[in-house]
Write a structure and sequence with these properties.
Blueprint: H1 2-9, H2 23-31, E1 49-53, H3 55-63, H4 72-77, E2 79-81, H5 84-97, H6 101-106, E3 112-115, E4 128-131, E5 147-150, H7 160-188, H8 196-201, H9 206-218, H10 229-241, H11 243-261
Parallel strand pairs: 1-3, 3-5
Antiparallel strand pairs: 1-2, 4-5
Helix pairs in contact: 2-5, 5-7, 7-9, 7-11, 9-10
């Protein structure tokens, strides 16, 4: 029956979008209040206060970071009202992150310092970086770091925040597994069961994983502007050779997002 209906009326299946969200998508999202109920809503509002610094100060901060320092205070101290361009940039990243459970799990504007400079004046080889929390031996999350650096340079593509959110999403999954294992040892005296998929994601394959997912969901966005063609090509090869593994990671992220958000939403 389904085949007959498809023949008569055409299939309703729509190819998923792989273009990166535009400013027009942001206007549409604002019209329909797409962030309603999302944990990031407060940082994505028209007059929201978000962490921002000059690119020079951001790079200096990240270069001097070390484990044990409480960077929550820094994030609070450098908050400023989000100007229209910076908000547009972050909203495009938010919309993009909704296509990937890994990106959505890692997207958090309150943990990202975005450059306040004119993008035309920024000249750095690295457009973004994520520095995770360190873990205690008990598997507890420390207060140090867990911060994303985003430099909005005109020479780079607009997807840096989304790229770094994927790194953060993977680290969130790894941390959650570490905490579960630590709890198992404390409460039951059990032996942690290694999750080979997450072990692999925490290895030097992680950059290829992120590059592959970026191409899967956003096409050739990372080839725009100044970029490292070798990394992009490596990600393309990884995507072609590891589709089932990438799908398993996304499933883990979906489970994480559900468990993480079910008790935090107020309906």
């Amino acid at each position: 029956m389904a085949g007959i209906l498809d023949f008569l009326f055409g299939s309703k299946e729509v190819e998923p979008r792989t273009d990166y969200p535009s400013s027009e998508d942001v206007r549409m999202a604002d019209k329909y209040d797409s962030t309603y109920g999302d944990n990031s809503a407060r940082q994505l509002g028209i007059e929201s206060l978000t962490p921002t610094m000059s690119s020079k100060d951001i790079v200096r901060l990240f270069n001097n970071m070390k484990g044990g320092d409480d960077h929550n205070k820094v994030l609070q101290q450098v908050r400023a009202e989000s100007d229209p361009d910076r908000r547009d940039y972050m909203m495009r990243s938010y919309i993009a992150s909704q296509r990937s459970a890994i990106a959505a799990s890692g997207f958090d504007p309150s943990r990202a310092i975005v450059s306040s400079d004119n993008p035309e004046n920024i000249r750095y080889d690295t457009a973004g970086k994520y520095r995770p929390h360190t873990l205690t031996e008990e598997g507890k999350r420390g207060k140090d770091i867990d911060m994303t650096m985003v430099l909005r340079s005109q020479d780079t593509d607009p997807s840096t925040m989304t790229h770094e959110s994927m790194h953060r999403g993977i680290e969130q999954l790894i941390r959650k597994k570490d905490q579960e294992d630590a709890t198992l040892v404390r409460e039951k005296g059990g032996i942690p069961t290694l999750n080979e998929d997450l072990k692999r994601a925490g290895s030097d394959e992680q950059e290829d994983i992120v590059r592959a997912l970026m191409q899967k969901y956003y096409g050739d966005i990372e080839t725009q502007g100044r970029h490292n063609s070798t990394l992009v090509e490596s990600g393309s090869e990884y995507l072609a050779n590891n589709p089932e593994y990438l799908n398993r990671l996304e499933l883990l992220a979906q489970q994480y997002a559900y468990e993480n958000n079910k008790n935090r939403r107020n309906w």
